[in-house]
Amino acid sequence: MTTFESPATDQRFPLRRSCPFAPPPEYVALRAAGPLARMTLPSGRSAWVVTRFDEVQQVLADPRISADVTHPGYPQLTPEPDPEGEKVLPGEFFKMDQPEHGRYRRMLIPEFSVKRIKALRPGIQAMIDRLLDDMLANGAPADLAAAFALPVPSLGICQLLGIPYADHEFFQPRIRSRKMVTYEDVQVAIAEVLAYTDKAVSRAEEQPGDNLIGRMVTGRRATGELSHDELVGMVYQLLIAAHETTANMIQLGTLTLVRHPDQLAELRADPARWPNAVDELLRYHAIADGPTFARTAVADIDIGAETIRAGDAVFALCASANHDERAFDRPGDFDIHRNARKHLGFGYGAHQCLGQNLARAWLEIALETLFRRVPTLRPAIEIDDLPFKYDAAIFGLDEFPVTW
Ligand code: HEM
């Protein structure tokens, strides 16, 4: 396997955001220069970054682009090789390629269908109302992250999987790796959440309920299609994928709507606008960017005038694609009137977010209910003082003090 060794530019990857409402500013010049650029990873290795909307879609949909973390060319973002980064649990399909990836993903697709999520909406509304009852009863000010934004995915995923909500006190802090200080802390937390997931699957194997884990046990474990460990890996992956992403989007969405009172007033007057507004929030913030979309080319691929060689590292910049002036008019403006549906906030291609229908329902109901029930909601501190996670793989906020 050849790896890409030609000299990189002196531009370092990943680039950092400097404004909470825009991707890294360097993306503008990179997109203007071409659809692909070469950058240098913390290890010193060179990688391709893909910057424009069409080419990002092309790369993420190309079967010659691998998401397999065990591939020898798979790029890591640590200065030294991290053996943990090459590990794949059985069933952890977001780190796999076809055909394994598709085999696991297909088993879960019915759980996230539009119809299934529609049926969950009344339960989601009731859960969100209860969270707001508590937040209002405790009085202002509050940390929107702790009181609302994190409990929405925590409670929601517990309902979906069929695990007791009381357990969120155990797994929520362990999933929030930002709060951990050392590499060892993170590894211990991963092991503990895995052991927890293992127990939850064992319980369901003894007594399957009418929930996702229960249906996997009766429908897939019983037929021998899935092993115990594979189901543990799948469930673990869902727990991790749902939390920070959704919590960050609820907080950033709240902040952005407070900053655009005219558009918020339109949404209050016409709630049918919420679904598109949520897609516009996902486009505008594009919280999952290059580091999430680390890939390896497994064959030569021509893109424009360039050839990505087999073994090369590739990062698809979905935040850049969502702000590509070729795909969206005035991309830097937040505008609930544009048709934002084609955004890449959930990625694209084989690994496009499996939970997107659920995430949309959570975000729509959370934001609509929050602003309906707490119409005077606003940040309790200056926006510049909010703790934005500029160096995290998924952009967002650590805490969000609010008042009303
Ligand atoms: C606003 C919230 C969310 C955002 C922005 C988001 C974003 C993403 C993105 C960008 C990917 C693609 C990663 C890649 O291509 O490497 C992805 C994959 C995935 N997401 Fe989400 N996600 C969200 C919520 C959820 C929820 C609620 C669930 C499940 C309960 C979920 C489950 C998954 C899974 C299982 C994958 C892997 C899919 C695969 O590899 O086939 N996500 N998500």
UniProtKB/TrEMBL annotation:
Under the GO molecular function aspect, what terms does this record hold?
oxidoreductase activity
Q: What is this protein called?
A: Cytochrome P450
Write out the similarity annotation: Belongs to the cytochrome P450 family.
Q: Which Gene3D superfamilies does this one have?
A: Cytochrome P450 (1.10.630.10)
Q: Which domain of life is it from?
A: Bacteria
Which Pfam families does the record match to this protein? p450
Annotated membrane-spanning segments are: none
Query: What are the UniProt keywords, alphabetically?
Result: Heme, Iron, Metal-binding, Monooxygenase, Oxidoreductase
- EC number(s) from the headed UniProt entry: 1.14.-.-
Q: Which PROSITE patterns match?
A: CYTOCHROME_P450
Please tell me the species this chain comes from. Answer: Nocardia suismassiliense
